[in-house]
Design goal:
three-stranded antiparallel sheet; globular; alpha+beta; single chain; 13 helices
Length: 450
């Protein structure tokens, strides 16, 4: 944010032209001809499609960490974050980059400790484990890889002294019994309690979206994880399949608001059962994962969710909160003072001071690129083959974004308000990977070859 810039320079160029910019510091400027070696123009026989360009761009985020791989979440300033890397690996798997995805999964699998994974890796420090979704995304990514390979052999891959299967079961068992960082399962409903600021909507100090309790996307991830674990361990200590069905029923019973959309969170303390949680009416896109991950298969509910979430859509991104009043309050406190209208928390412009301007807007109106493809995926799953053309058209609205800013990459966020200016990181890993993953999904569903 404090990067010094001497100014901006722009020039119009035509094909085969060269422009050279020279600069001097504390010297008399000497303007000389810019002598550059002649570079022969090579024209590839194979056309470079936008899809190939985006696939190649995936490599920009993959980095070495010892003998394995990790993911830089975004440029210019992010490090490797757990959830981002694991969501990104799903796109790699869909793109057929199995070796790279495998290395990422083995890296983070080696960090697993009684159901916890690093929220962020800072140098060699993996002590920040304030995340309830990263371990579940790990399970989902492993499931994707095994399905893509059509073989369970990856379960036998070793991370230090354990196998991937051991790590997956450790996550499942630990979520049921409770983790050291206070993630736990409610025995009656099968739903997962998440501490404050443990989801991807994790802005804190001030806490702008604490979401303490039972968050909808955590339940969707938990359902999908249980469904996969039922194939990993058929005769173990838990009946994973039955538990998955319990979770799906609990989502329908406790989250559905007037058959219109799903509550974003059942707000509760760490001792409250899910049935005592207070459902909020904040319309957010997290509920889309309940459809894409199979936790809510009911077509009528799916259509209602899609209809409700239309108000969140902007070209190429989806708003983190709808521009409307809410009944359930969201009060943002900074220096002991309320800095928002708790019954109208939407902020459509990401600007100003970090704590009082940008953070309150980050997950309360800013439009995100990474979750936008989930709407398109959900649309295709709800409406079936007839919905693929519409879903594809919606997804293609993202292409305007890669022609601006950091060319060939998706930005982190846009302003929720028109004209939806690009903000945040110029190039975001999971925005790119999710777009490609869903694009490939839609193409396969349409009977086309990749």
């Amino acid at each position: 944010s404090d990067l010094f810039s001497p100014g901006y320079f722009s020039v119009f160029m035509k094909g085969n032209e060269t422009v050279c910019l020279t600069a001097d510091i504390n010297q008399t400027p000497q303007y000389t001809a810019c002598l550059l070696p002649e570079i022969p123009l090579e024209v590839s026989k194979d056309p470079v499609t936008f899809e190939k360009s985006l696939r190649d761009a995936l490599n920009s985020f993959i980095v070495k960490r010892n003998h394995l791989k990790s993911v830089i979440s975004g440029y210019p300033w992010f490090l490797d974050w757990g959830r981002d890397a694991l969501i990104f690996s799903r796109g790699l798997i869909q793109a057929g980059m199995i070796r790279e995805a495998s290395d990422i999964l083995k890296l983070f699998g080696g960090f697993e400790d009684h159901g916890t994974l690093p929220n962020m890796i800072h140098g060699k420090n993996t002590g920040n484990r304030d995340t309830s979704d990263a371990p579940l995304w790990f399970v989902i990514a492993c499931s994707d890889l095994i399905k893509r390979e059509n073989s369970p052999i990856f379960l036998s891959e070793r991370c230090s002294n354990r196998t991937i299967k051991d790590i997956l079961l450790s996550i499942g068992h630990s979520y049921i019994s409770g983790t050291a960082n206070h993630i736990r399962m409610d025995g009656a409903s099968g739903l997962i309690y998440s501490p404050a600021c443990f989801t991807w909507m994790d802005t804190n100090h001030p806490a702008c979206t604490p979401r303490r309790g039972y968050c909808i996307e955590i339940q969707a991830l938990w359902y999908a994880a249980l469904d996969f674990l039922s194939t990993v361990e058929k005769n173990g200590g838990h009946d994973w399949e039955t538990l998955a069905k319990t979770v799906a029923q609990s989502i329908t019973d406790l989250f559905l608001l007037k058959n219109e959309y799903l509550a974003d969170c059942l707000h509760a303390s760490d001792k409250d059962p899910a049935k005592n949680g207070l459902p909020d009416d904040a319309l957010r896109p997290n509920q889309l994962l309940a459809i894409t991950l199979g936790a809510v298969p009911d077509t009528a509910v799916g259509k209602a969710v899609l209809d409700a979430c239309q108000s969140l859509l902007v070209p190429g991104a989806i708003r983190s909160l709808t521009d409307a009043p809410t009944i359930y309050p969201l009060e943002i406190i900074h220096n002991r003072t309320a800095i928002n209208n708790p019954h109208y928390p939407y902020r459509g412009v990401y600007a100003g001071d970090e704590d009082t301007g940008r953070k309150p807007a980050y997950h309360n109106g800013s439009a995100w690129t990474w979750l936008f493809p989930a709407y398109c995926e959900a649309y295709a799953k709800v409406y079936g083959e007839k919905g693929i053309a519409t879903a594809s058209s919606l997804l293609l609205s993202s292409l305007e974004l890669i022609r601006e800013g950091c060319m060939g990459h998706f930005p982190e966020i846009l302003d929720g308000d028109y004209p939806h200016t690009q903000k945040g990181c110029d190039a975001q890993a999971w925005g790119l990977s999710e777009w490609l993953r869903v694009w490939d999904f839609l193409k396969r569903g349409n009977g086309q070859t990749v």
